[in-house]
Amino acid sequence: MPDYKRIYIEGGTYFFTLATARRAPRFAEPETRLILRTAIKKVRSRHPFEIVGMVILPDHLHALWRLPAGDSDFSLRWRLIKTHMTRYAGRGRRLWQDRFWEHAIRDERDLAHHLDYLHWNPMKHGLVTRVQDWPWSSFHRYVAAGLYPLDWCGSRELADYAFG
Questions:
Q1: All structural domains of the chain with their residue ranges
Q2: Strand, coil or helix: what is 10?
Q3: Whole-model pTM?
Q4: Which residue in 32, 45, 55, 111 has the fewest CB atoms around it within 10 Å?
Q5: Backbone angles phi and psi of 53, in degrees to 5
Q6: How far apart are CA 12 and CA 6, in angstroms?
Q7: What's the Cα-to-Cα distance from 126 to each of 6, 54, 67, 121, rounded to whole Å?
Q8: Neighbour-count burial for 139-164, b at 16+ CB within 10 Å, e otherwise
Q9: How far apart are CA 25 and CA 61, in angstroms?
Q10: Strands lying side by side in the sheet with 13-19
Q11: Per-residue pLDDT tens over the stretch 88-134
């Protein structure tokens, strides 16, 4: 993977996947989720970005961010968040996989697809049978805004059919 090149777009919108070291279920711990929330809040105060969507699963997270105009440095933000998390939640153990995966969002259709994928992810991993049952997701914010129905994706069987 030494030839991997990140795409930096000023004011861009990105989909991210970050995993814990050895896929340990660190985010199953309430304290770790609280430390993540604090780290994000701290970093956003100095390096603003919009969280378009996010879901936290036991061993990884997905996030959709929109950066401010004239700014493309998502790597700095993730480095600061991961450093804060390691300092306060690492307990002397490696917390994160070394790298993270990002995808630059191309258009509104791509954004909608990745937002749907992010919200469906707890069902994909068999953590819940309905999207609405996963509490650590921006799905609930979208339902409150009237952008998703509460029963979006319906049952596990329907979601498996739609998302394969």
A1: 13-163
A2: coil
A3: 0.91
A4: 45
A5: -165, 155
A6: 13
A7: 31, 18, 32, 9
A8: bbebbeeeebeeebbeeeeebeeeee
A9: 11
A10: 50-56, 60-66, 13-19, 101-104
A11: 988 778 899 989 999 999 999 999 999 999 999 999 999 999 999 99
CB neighbourhood size of 125 (10 A): 13
List the one residue out of 86, 81, 85, 26 whose CA is nearest residue 56. 26
CATH for 13-163, among 1.10.3470.10, 2.40.30.10, 3.90.1200.10, 3.30.70.1290?
3.30.70.1290
- Beta strand extents in 13-142 (DSSP E only): 13-19, 50-56, 60-66, 101-104
Whose CA is closest to 91, among 23, 18, 31, 12?
Answer: 31
Q: Tokens for 137, please give them.
A: 């997701």
Structure-token match 């069987």, residue found: 157
What DSSP designation does 130 have?
S
> Is the Cβ–Cβ distance between 119 and 131 less than 8 Å?
yes
